[in-house]
Amino acid sequence: MSLERFLEEAVVNRKSFVFYDSFYKAMSYLNDKEKIQYIEAICNYSLFDITIDMDLKIEAMFALIKPQIDANIKKRENGKKGGRPRSINLKY
After folding, report:
1. Quick one: CA torsion of 80, 81, 83, 86, rounded to 10 degrees?
2. How many CA atoms lie within 13 A of 51 on its CB side?
3. Cα dihedral 55, 60, 65, 66 sign
């Protein structure tokens, strides 16, 4: 199955993600083909939990930003749990 076909049928895990300006600034060192691959890698991982095949240069850059994406995903999932319960103030 092609990636395009898979994405058409995939259930979107998330509808949005944070794209930091540091991700954008890193793209200034890439040519147009590499930029597309870099953005596709970020989007596929952030939205669908899919890691695509990448050129070595893009894979190295992605390895640097993946922990930030993972932290953002975890933060969002933890936020859905409702946060810390209120403390009860017992006064006698």
Report:
1. 140
2. 9
3. positive
Q: Which long-range contacts (CB under 8 A, 24 or more apart) does 70-73 make?
A: 72/17, 72/18, 72/46, 73/14, 73/17, 73/46
pLDDT per residue as tens digits for the range 32-89: 999 999 999 999 999 888 899 999 999 999 999 999 999 988 888 877 777 677 777 7
Contact 74, 36 (CB under 8 A): no
Q: Which of 75, 69, 89 is nearest to 17 (CA)?
A: 69
Helices (H) and strands (E) in the chain, counts: 4, 0
